[in-house]
Specification:
Length: 271
DNA sequence: ACTGGCTCCTGAGGGC
DNA sequence: TGCCCTCAGGAGCCAG
């Protein structure tokens, strides 16, 4: 499940390989991703030079001569740099050869991800234009969250996972950050105080930063790796720990579905 | 303007 | 060992 740190790590990992290279051959093995890859996709991409690789939310944007590849990893997607003759693995859906020896492989068992072609002003794209702010940017403050939460009665966990508010806070980190900030995940968003939102922002940032740093340790052998997440290695304090003792008070961690998503919290520490 | 529910898909894990 | 069932999950989309 790629969360923002993993997408960032992926971005940093593939950029040095791709920059300045030309896509020489593109093969689509399975076009049916979240949105189908159009039939003329390979034809459009072939011959184009990579000018930049950037991230917006959990989207990876690869700028070519006449437009952008928009890549999303969904929850089971990954890309890897492999030798051209590397045998296809199950669920390798697209192969983009960018040099005489190497290609970029898109792999996604559950096919919740997407690979799109877009032209024009990229940030005006329907998938990008309504996105909220980046959690690691300076504009992401407690004040911002509280202001956006005005009149919002949805659970605060759902609120911070809303892409229109702040991007890239997935289910795991939402639970973790709320635990660290001592806020009950089901509290209505408009009933969280300014001080609490400040704490929440601080913890969202720190948990994402720590995960990116850990992801960075796998960058060295990125070409061999699946981009396996750093965050699984880090100690999660509540996520996936239902019934186990809270690291602070020892009470069993609760699990509850909030807006269709499993949520983990300590009912003693989080009010 | 908000909100909740639905949807895509496969693999993991539990029960037997 | 293997089969069947259930569930998880990002996030766009739509109906109420």
């Amino acid at each position: 499940m790629p969360e923002l740190p993993e997408v960032e790590t992926t971005c940093r990992g593939i950029a040095p390989h791709l920059l300045g290279q030309t896509f020489q051959q593109v093969k689509v093995y399975q076009p049916r991703l979240r949105w189908a890859i159009p039939e003329d996709f390979a034809e459009i991409i072939t011959g184009q030079v990579v000018h930049s690789v950037q991230r917006r939310a959990k989207y990876i944007l690869i700028q070519l001569d006449t437009g952008y590849l928009i890549l999303h990893l969904g929850m089971s997607g990954s890309v890897r740099i492999v030798p051209t003759d590397d045998p296809l693995k199950k669920h390798d859906h697209v192969s983009l050869q960018f040099s005489a020896t190497h290609c970029l492989r898109y792999h996604d068992p559950r096919r919740f991800g997407c690979l799109l072609w877009a032209t024009g002003e990229i940030m005006q794209h329907p998938l990008l234009s309504k996105l909220g702010i980046e959690p690691l940017h300076d504009e992401f403050t407690g004040e911002y969250l509280q202001q956006r939460a005005t009149k919002r009665q949805i659970a605060v966990k759902t609120f911070i996972m809303s892409q229109a508010v702040v991007v890239g806070v997935g289910n795991i980190y939402a639970s973790e950050a709320l635990f660290l900030a001592k806020i009950h995940p089901q509290r209505p968003a408009n009933q969280v105080s300014a001080a609490e939102y400040n704490e929440l922002v601080r913890h969202i940032r720190s948990v994402l930063r720590a995960a990116i740093e850990q992801g960075g340790t796998t960058l060295r052998d990125f070409t061999n790796s699946e981009g396996k997440a750093g965050y699984f290695q880090q100690t999660l304090q509540v996520y996936g720990r239902a019934g186990q003792p809270c690291v602070h008070c020892g009470q069993p961690i609760m699990q509850q579905v909030i807006t269709q998503r499993s949520s983990f919290f300590c009912k003693q520490c989080q009010q």
